[in-house]
Amino acid sequence: MAVFYGVEVQSRLFLGTSLYPSPDIMTAAIKASGAEVVTVSLRRESAEARAGQGFWKLIQDLGVRVLPNTAGCHTVKEAVTTAHMAREVFDTPWIKLEVIGEEDTLHPDIFGSVEAARILTDDGFQVFPYTTEDLVAAGKLLDAGCEVLMPWGAPIGSGLGLNNIYGLRAMRSHFPDVPLVVDAGIGLPSHAAAAMELGFDAVLLNTAVAKAGDPAGMATAMAQAVEAGRAGFEADPMESRDMAAPSTPVMGKAFLA
C-alpha cells in the first residue's frame, strides 16, 4: 500500500486518460488496470459549454481518485491559473504540476516548476511535480513544499523506458522517505517492473496503454508488471556480480582419482 499526502492507495499504477480511441476503450482500460488514481487534463472540460461533462461523468462513475494536471503549460502563471481552475472543477487539492521548458523533449522547466510549486503549496494545493532525476531540483521542490516527486523515466510519450537508471537509483537512495513516482517514458511492462524494482512507490503512464493495439490488455499487463516489480523489491533481491557462482553445492562432491 502506498501513501500520498495521507491518502492510502492499493494500486501503484496511475493511469492517464488521454489519447484513447474512444471513451469506452478508455473505461475498459482503467477498469482492467485496477488503477485508483487517474490523471485528467482541464482541457477535457469546458467551462462555458460544459462539453466535457460526459467525460467527467465517465470518470466519476469509475470511482477513482482524480489527479488533475497542468499539461501543456509553459509558464508559471499559466500553470498556477490552470491549477486553480482544476481545483474548482474537480474538487480536489491534488495537482500534477507540469511546467514545460523545451518543446521537442517536453523537458520540464525546473526553475518554473519550483516557483509554481511554492505558490501552489502556499495556496493549499498538494503538488505532484513532474521533474527530472536531478537531485538538486528534487531538493528544491521538496523545500518548496512538495511531499511527492515524479521524475521522468524518459520524455513524455517516447516509450523509451528508464533512460537514466543511475540517476533514478540515486534519487531513491537520497530521498528514502519521499514518495516517488516514475512519470513518463514507460513503453513496456518490463519498463514498469524495472521502475518498481528500483524501489519507486508507483508508476504513472498513459501512451503505452492508450496507443496499444489492445489497451485493456496492455493495462492488465502493466498492472501485473507493477505488482511483480514491487514484490521483487520487497523480497530484497540478490546483489549482481561479475563472476559466476555455482548454484549446486560442491561440499561432499565425489572426486575420481
The residue fraction in helices comes out at: 25-40%
Spatial ordering of strands, largest sheet: 5-4-3-12-11
Give the overall silhouette.
globular
- The whole-number mean of residue pLDDT values reads 92
Chain-wise SSE layout:
Elements: E1 2-4, E2 7-9, E3 13-16, H1 23-33, E4 37-41, H2 53-62, E5 65-69, H3 76-90, E6 94-97, E7 100-102, E8 107-108, H4 110-122, E9 126-131, H5 135-143, E10 150-151, H6 165-174, E11 181-183, H7 189-197, E12 202-205, H8 207-210, H9 215-234
Parallel strand pairs: 3-4, 3-12, 4-5, 6-9, 9-10, 11-12
Antiparallel strand pairs: 1-2, 7-8
Helix pairs in contact: 1-2, 1-9, 3-4, 4-5, 7-9
Question: How would you describe the overall organization of this protein?
Answer:
The structure is a single chain. The protein has helices at residues 23-33, 53-62, 76-90, 110-122, 135-143, 165-174, 189-197, 207-210, 215-234, and strands spanning 2-4, 7-9, 13-16, 37-41, 65-69, 94-97, 100-102, 107-108, 126-131, 150-151, 181-183, 202-205. The protein is an alpha/beta fold and 257 residues long. The strands form four sheets. The protein has a five-stranded parallel β-sheet. The chain has a three-stranded parallel β-sheet with strand order 6-9-10. It is globular and about 80 Å long. Helix 7 (189-197) links the parallel strand 11 and strand 12 (202-205).
